[in-house]
Amino acid sequence: MNLTGAEVVARIAAARILPVVVLERAEDAVPLARALMEGGLPVAEVTFRTAAAAESLRRIRLEVPDMLLGAGTVLTGEQLDLAKASGAQFIVTPGFNPAIVAAAQALGLPIVPGINNPTGVEQAMSFGLEAVKFFPAEPSGGVPFLKALTGPYPTMRFVPTGGIGPANLANYLALPAVLACGGSWMVDAKLVQEGRFAEISRLTGEAVGLARRA
């Protein structure tokens, strides 16, 4: 059964961090998902930056069913269809493509599209969306820009992603309009490739602790 947009938003908000995962090998998907769960993060965005994305999604959905599972970097209708078929429960895009947003909504898939300006926010509002990805967060002006951007749009929630880590996580989470922060420091590709899943769990636990104190 599909989750509603409100349900997805609520679960991301509860996590406060959205891990952005790049998997080169599908066999790493389940150990990584379990490491995130053990560290206290029951959510992941698996990006379509590699050929292993769809199979990784499928394996996580089958073997770690309690994880809220998103597909990221979805750029085409083909990727969107593949993400849904593979078990993704929500979609994340780096930019705002009206055709992809409309297609996701037609499939009943909640979508968090990327924006970094007022026009993007208003496009999202025109589609009835309640949350957007602020990307790339740091290069786009970081906390000061996002704080200014939230002023005219009091109902919109944001998931800033890009250049966020332990040093600035709390600054973003302190903004009332921030739903959660996207990040990859706890799921570093080198750690995944080396099979250091216990270290991923440790870093995830530290990130969760930082988020709770923010």
TrEMBL record:
Q: State what protein this is by name.
A: 2-dehydro-3-deoxy-phosphogluconate aldolase
* UniProt keyword list: Carbohydrate metabolism, Lyase, Schiff base
This protein's species is Rhizobium giardinii
Oligomer status and interactors: Homotrimer.
Family statement: Belongs to the KHG/KDPG aldolase family.
Source superkingdom:
Bacteria
| Enzyme class name | lyase
* InterPro entries assigned: Aldlse_KDPG_KHG, Aldolase_TIM, KDPG/KHG_AS_1, KDPG/KHG_AS_2
The record, for Pfam families, names: Aldolase (PF01081)
Q: Give GO MF terms, alphabetically.
A: 2-dehydro-3-deoxy-phosphogluconate aldolase activity
Q: In which pathway does it act?
A: Carbohydrate acid metabolism; 2-dehydro-3-deoxy-D-gluconate degradation; D-glyceraldehyde 3-phosphate and pyruvate from 2-dehydro-3-deoxy-D-gluconate: step 2/2
For this protein, the Enzyme Commission number is 4.1.2.14
**Catalytic reaction equation(s):** 2-dehydro-3-deoxy-6-phospho-D-gluconate = D-glyceraldehyde 3-phosphate + pyruvate
